Amino acid sequence: MIEYTQLTELPADYVKRKVDEFLHEDMPDDDKTAGGIYRKGNLIKAVIQAEDDIVLSGINLTPLVFENNEVKILHNDREYVLNETIIATVTGQAADILKKERVYLNLIQRMSGIATMTAKYVEKTKPYDVKILDTRKTTPGLRLFEKYSVCMGGGHNHRMNLSSGILIKDNHIKAAGGVKAAINLIKEKHYSLPLEIEVENEEQIKEAMEAGVDGFLLDNMNREATFSGVKLIRSYPQGNDIFIESSGGINLSNLSNYVDTGINAISIGSLTHSIKAADIHIEFEKL
To answer: Which domain does 102 fall in, by range?
Structure first.
């Protein structure tokens, strides 16, 4: 059964490097406003507060963004926190905190938005032991942050990138000249990677099973076609060991059509490509 590496922790050196990049983008020659108004010795306390019921993701970025300041983390990633909950505080030089607040909020709001939405999907699929997967439809430059957030919401990571797994899709099949041809060309490379193929009908399933694959992505199949596809795959001697995921147009409103079909997972591109940012606010207190 296919199981990809799960990003349950963000490497501190990676986060620091990305944060430095984002801060430089936002202030290539310092913050002229905060730098012009505040002087050394102007201390403030930044109170970071949820403005809605959310699942936290990204709180561990706080000390890496606001380094050289006093940081108190009051709640952890994965936690479900209620509206008006104070999740962290930062105390230090006003100019330093103010010049970093927007970058920090942009990150933690997006990350917590992903975790919060993922948790809603996971709650609906949990009774059926169906995993919620992310996709590669991530924001360029933010993939690790976004995939980590899916894990914080209780979801699972699909392949991290094009190098970490084989997924033969429709255009690959066309380029190769057919399902069997595509699979055989991949097998000639002797990759030590899971091999999954996207299929649209039962004829493609039969070809793929004969050629030998580790998993199927049932693309844009309705409930009836999904039931039928799963039954066909499981009917083969090795069928129970095959990983099966559904994808394409599945959302919270129609999720129930798929959870009891016998699939192992559902991949949801919208978890990262069109998510609503969580409402998180920073209130400043002058000291």
So the answer is: 12-121+276-286
Is position 70 within any domain?
A: yes
* Helix, strand, coil fractions of the chain, as percent rounded to 5: 40, 20, 40
Give the total number of structural domains in the chain.
2
Token representation of residue 164: 């970490």
List active site positions. Answer: 102, 137, 169, 198, 219
Task: Say if residue 127 is in the same domain as residue 232.
Answer: yes
Q: Has this prediction a pTM greater than 0.85?
A: yes
Calculate the alpha carbon distances from 236 to 180, 193, 268 in Å: 17, 22, 28
Q: How confident is the model at residue 196 (pLDDT cuts 50, 70, 90)?
A: very high
- Tens-place pLDDT, residues 74-133: 999 999 999 999 999 999 999 899 999 999 999 999 999 999 999 999 999 999 999 999
Query: Which residues, 6+ apart, have CB-to-CB distance to 158 below 8 Å?
Result: 4, 133, 134, 135, 136, 165, 267
